[in-house]
Amino acid sequence: MLYFDHSATTPTDPQVLDLMQWVAKENFGNPSSIHKFGQKARATIEKARRQVADALNAKPRNIIFTGSGTEANNMVLHNLLFSKNKHVITSAIEHPAIFKTLKKMKIFGVTVTIIPVDKFGLIKLEKIESTIQNDTGLITIMHANNEVGTIQPLNEISKIAKKHNIIFHSDAVQIPGKLLLDVVNVGSDLMSFSAHKFYGPKGVGFLYCQDAIKLNPLIIGGGQESKRRAGTENTAGITGLGLAMELASKFLEKNRKHLTSLEEHFKTRLAQIYPSVKFNGHPEKHLPGLVSATFPKIASEVMLVNLDMNNIAVSSGSACSSGVVKPSEVLKAMGISNELNVSTLRISFGKDNTLAEVDQLLDVISEILKKYSII
Hints:
It contains 14 helices and 15 strands. By secondary structure, the chain is α/β, with parallel strands linked by helices. Strands 2-8-7-6-5-3-4 form a seven-stranded mixed sheet, sandwiched between helices. A four-stranded antiparallel sheet has the order 9-10-15-12, with helices on one face. Strands 1-11 form a two-stranded parallel sheet. Strand 13 and strand 14 form a beta hairpin. Helix 1 packs antiparallel against helix 9, helix 2 runs parallel beside helix 9 and helix 3 packs parallel to helix 4.
């Protein structure tokens, strides 16, 4: 089966799997124990912390391991409960881990201003500064959108946040392995990541937290992660994350060029096969290898089912619930009509996909469109 849904999750790298298996067998000690078994486990965790920090140009003490990118986002948002400034500025295309959490937190006095995006999915910078209030305590804007791939101007947002002494957070789970990320240059105070997005294991992520931020723990118990995230650490998972991050950094340029070539080949041929196709997101400021394509006159669920029957996995640009395709909130925010919204697919290529596989995908898409008399 051909897999083109890497923005949802990536297959775990074989090197990462091998390392995790070895760690689970040999370094099973509790990292908080003072005996040699515990010391060995602790050493592997701290090595992973250094690998992550090196990849981001951060300090190891700025890396907090979590159970997911979602948990990292929740840590940041729940920190507002300990602040007198409970107003949040966010964008109209954030992940549900941001939107749904903020909605739940309204009962605690948290208020939210949602900034619109343009037709390319880019944040409107002037709206951020104009909506800052005396009690604004956080600006949270994702680095790159998971549906259309549009990259936000974090440097400019960071300057606005610093000018007004506001904490700035970014959900950056889609970035490793695709774009160079230097946290010092970007200027974000907090950034969330998830290992399974860059060929690491599921169930482990991390939060970058710069020194000046006082972070209250979301999970309370022991003193793990410098008292910021309680619970016995997932040693094997963290070790796998560390290696996956190192590999993502080491082969960044090679993989970026490869993903870009696959994307360009796909878009060029698809436009020839079906000239009516529409590509969503910013034409230049977007993640390599992620394509949001709208197929007028054919529903995305029809395309998905037929592709799956041909052993090809892609994703819908819409959220599926109980068998009913609903318009994507991201595409709606970009001004895309409901009719086109529910005719959109997301194709996200990975480092191990080949041009031959992309051609197979294109050939099947062509056959489906012919089958339904679209072309």
